[in-house]
Amino acid sequence: MKRSALILAALAVTLTLAGCGSRSIGNKIDDQFLGPNVATQVSNAHADLASPTSRIVVTAYNGVILLAGQTPRSELKEAAAQAARRVQGVKKVYNELQVQQPASLLARSNDSLLTTKIKTQMVADATVPSARIKVVTENGIVYLLGLVTREEANSATRVVQGVSGVQKVVRLFEYTN
């Protein structure tokens, strides 16, 4: 009996939180499959995209794909974008891959710390709809994705710019107004 109550409570919380954003549960589920599908297609597009010479981070939000990371040659950057565009369900691809050697472990650790700081600041700021914004940090560059108003985007950007260590903010929002 206790187990059933816990399951029902968890389901209620999940459905309540899912209703807090402007995306449907179906969109969220689609993105959970879309990201890995794109990552697989990108890796299969060229052997060097799957090798240690490249570091590709694929993020999906509402059918929008962000390709971030590093690859050693510009033709690999373009091959990754073309592979991502071919995946069914992809609405738009932002190809933010940098042509350079992969970021060091120290840089990636710093990126994780920055993302955590940013998310914490967003949750603390009532003007930022943190549940509707995805934050991706790669090599000190912060990418913001989500479905927001222009005012909400400006608030989120202001918060990110106030976090020490952020080198650049790239807004990839879909605007609702």
UniProtKB/TrEMBL annotation:
Gene3D superfamilies: 3.30.1340.30. It comes from Ectopseudomonas hydrolytica. The lineage of its organism: Bacteria, Pseudomonadati, Pseudomonadota, Gammaproteobacteria, Pseudomonadales. Residues 1-18 form the signal peptide. It comes from the Bacteria. The keyword Signal applies. InterPro entries: BON_dom, Lipoprotein_DolP, Transpt-assoc_nodulatn_dom_bac. This is BON domain-containing protein. The keyword Transferase does not apply. Keywords: Signal.
